[in-house]
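Q: Structure tokens for this one, please.
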Amino acid sequence: MLHRLGLIALCLLLTQAAAPAQDWPTRPIRAIIPFGAGSATDLVPRIVFEQLSSQLGQPIVVENRTGAGGTLGTSAVAKADSDGYTLLAHSNALTVAPAIYSNLPYDTVNDFTAIIPFGSLPAVLIMSPEKGFKTIQAMVAAAKAKPGSFNYGSVGVGSGTHLSAEKLKLGAGFDAVHIPFRGGPEALTEVIAGRVDFYFCPINTALPLIREGKLVALVTNGTARAPELPDVPTTLEAGYKDSDFPIWIGMLAPARTPQPIIDRLSAETIKALKVPGTQDRLAKAGITPLMMTPPEFDARIKAEIVSNIAVAKAAGIKPN
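A: Here is the predicted structure, written as tokens:
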């Protein structure tokens, strides 16, 4: 009799645990983006969330919570309830943070559940046409001939734009001085003026300036050539090992979020990404599809953390 009662109690507990996931969502969902409005990490999720909220029948309210290299907003999600009503839209800056910050207010691996990437965005190495370089090989040769004479811009220590340059430096075997800026517009201004030699810029931002002839594109850092710049080789094609560093943008949730909610979010996002209107808007933003299951996305995040720590160590970047 006691055994039977125990089984009944267990069934009731399982039913109660499953019920919220089955009913979810019954109210608006909050999505925290740890970077400012207008960045690729802000624009891309908004495109996807617009379609996703329609499918889920609830609004997805985006909150830009910036500061500390994206760690403030990320920490807020790590501490949020694991009920599916708080999500994190982030980029591979998430996997860079452990290499840059010694005392993160969260555990990058254990405090989050990976859901799905929205896609990837290659960066393009740009420089002023006044520099006179036509190929990446010519630029690298010049940098090797005069060690320390080149410099490059980024949007901050540990940013994707910073590590993109460091991976190229390591792969190609040359040196250059890092000049961090507060944001992309400042870095672009200095590159166009010729005061900064090169900058790995998100391709969607750089494309108009390249087409206007204000900038020259020497190489991209995706795993394949960018459709927007079919004549520009990748860093891997140029012969520089382990120099690829495409930016992914995706969605995560607090750890212990019920698996049925994770699975539904993944499935609904895949549907949203296949809607022609959404596909067109993402393509215009320079986004390349990157379909992954939650376990695959989780594995990629873990592998990148290890890789980025190694790159930062080799580049002499010390955690703050």
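A few notes: The two ends are 61 Å apart (CA to CA). The chain has eleven helices and ten strands.
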